[in-house]
Amino acid sequence: MSRGTSIDARVGRALLLSVFHRESPIHDGAAWIMDGRVQSVACVLPVSESPELRSGLGLRHRAALGVSELADVMALVVSEEEGSLSVAREGKLREGLSPEQVALELAAYLRIE
After folding, report:
1. Residue 95 — φ and ψ, nearest 5°?
2. Tens digit of pLDDT for each residue in 50-102?
3. How far apart are CA 56 and CA 62, in angstroms?
4. Which of 45, 30, 43, 33 is nearest to 8 (CA)?
5. How confident is the model at residue 113 (pLDDT cuts 50, 70, 90)?
6. DSSP code of 21?
7. Rg for the chain (alpha carbons), in Å?
8. Helix, strand, or coil here: 62?
């Protein structure tokens, strides 16, 4: 994984919206978030080589799955084309989730009740 551009800032709506705005020079790639802080952005993740993946999955989904195969992480994917939400965790990809389902997944991962 490429470490991307170091930021070290508190996670917030405005920060994430500005990072992932199409015109932002750092919008392409992943944001690495740990302990409530954006550590770095524009990170390049390892891509899954699993032969079980459906053929229509793009690089964003394959990268989210790839990093979840190698580390104890939860990767959230927002489709640029459709705006649909997916979560990769423990080498498994769950696609087409609602915002509420993503919130539940995140709370379970972070052990928040």
Report:
1. -105, 160
2. 888 888 888 889 999 999 999 999 999 988 778 899 999 999 999 999 999 99
3. 10
4. 33
5. low
6. S
7. 14
8. helix
Whether residue 39 contacts residue 33, with contact meaning beta carbons closer than 8 Å, is answered with: yes
* 90-96: long-range pairs with CB below 8 Å, 24+: 91/48, 91/50, 91/65, 92/65, 92/68, 93/53, 93/57, 93/61, 93/64, 93/65, 93/68, 95/61
Q: Which two tokens stand for residue 106?
A: 């995140």
pTM for this prediction: 0.80
Write down the residue that tokens 């997944």 correspond to.
105
Q: Find, among 48, 51, 43, 53, the residue nearest to 20 by Cα.
A: 43
